[in-house]
């Protein structure tokens, strides 16, 4: 599974400022929190400008977590899928993740996944509800 994450981190992670260092440190705190069985579901939202390295940071934290199940849910893997098929695939990702005591599911490029369009305010409510 780690091999599928390597392309997402092709430039590596460079702690070039306090913000990046802080995100990595906080991400590792969330990983430790997830390891505690009493904590339940732990979610992290990385937000920022396009091409800022959010996916690379998510993949980096996933690899460092060493969780037995790590998967990326990306619209790049669903190019020819209609809304119904996307919902089924997303649901399968979550079903698979719930089977493991520790799992990491990276939802990449959520705007494209829900078919969001900034010019004409549109998104797929079915996909959003599935998520």
Automatic annotation (TrEMBL):
Signal peptide: none annotated. It comes from the Eukaryota. The keyword Electron transport does not apply. SUPFAM superfamilies: P-loop containing nucleoside triphosphate hydrolases. GO terms for biological process: Golgi to plasma membrane protein transport; intra-Golgi vesicle-mediated transport; SNARE complex disassembly. InterPro entries: ATPase_AAA_core, P-loop_NTPase, Vesicle-fus_ATPase. It is found in: Cytoplasm. The keyword Cytoplasm applies. It is an enzyme of class 3 (hydrolase). One of its GO terms (cellular component) is Golgi stack. Gene3D superfamilies: P-loop containing nucleotide triphosphate hydrolases. Pfam families: AAA. Its main location: cytoplasm. Its cofactor is Mg(2+). Belongs to the AAA ATPase family. This is Vesicle-fusing ATPase. It comes from Leptotrombidium deliense. The lineage of its organism: Eukaryota, Metazoa, Ecdysozoa, Arthropoda, Chelicerata.
